[in-house]
Amino acid sequence: MKLVATYLIGLVFGLGIALSGMINPAKVLNFFDIAGTWDPSLAFVMGGALIVTAIGYRLAFRRGRPVLDRTFHLPKASAIDARLVGGSMIFGLGWGIAGFCPGGALPALGTGRGEVLLFVAALVAGILVTRAVLDRRAAAPRRA
């Protein structure tokens, strides 16, 4: 049942991204072009997502536990550290240069466009390199 729910949630997300036009990198890049061909539609998509998320969280937490699990699995980290800031900067730069974010790129894979495939390949490579670096750091002996 969890797999079916995961599929349906991903399908609804992907359809929302596609219907809103956010799989089009030009539309996203125009949002960032305030002095030129500014397109505010990304702000409306984000605002709508925030409203739906806020309502969804209120309803979910009111139940006391998730529908398909025993407990909620919430992040425990709350510190704003170098990894968070650095990752956010890399995310923002990639989004501003390519016009894709991971959430928009995955549904855009269905278009078969080469730039989407290249972006997703670079995304996966970045994830793998980061994991390798972090694993290597964790395995390295500590110096005093």
What does this structure look like?
Helix 1 packs across helix 5, helix 2 crosses helix 4 and helix 5 packs across helix 6. The protein is built from six helices and no strands. The protein has one domain. Helices cover 69% and strands 0% of the residues. The chain starts with a helix and ends in a 5-residue tail after the last helix.
Question: SSE layout and pairings?
Answer:
Blueprint (H helix, E strand, L loop, with lengths): L1 H18 L5 H8 L8 H23 L18 H17 L3 H7 L5 H26 L5
Helix pairs in contact: 1-5, 2-4, 5-6
InterPro entries: DUF6691 (IPR046513)
Keywords: Membrane, Transmembrane, Transmembrane helix
Organism: Amaricoccus solimangrovi
Largest pleated sheet: none
H-E order = HHHHHH
Range of strand content: under 5%
Shape verdict: globular
Strand segment tally: 0
Helical amount: 55-70%
The overall pLDDT, averaged over residues, is 91
How many independent structural domains? 1
Total number of helical segments? 6
Give the oligomeric state of the chains in this entry, treating copies of one chain as homo and distinct chains as hetero.
single chain
Distance between the termini: 50 Å
Kindly provide the radius of gyration, computed on alpha-carbon positions and rounded to a whole number of angstroms.
18 Å
The assigned structural class equals mainly alpha
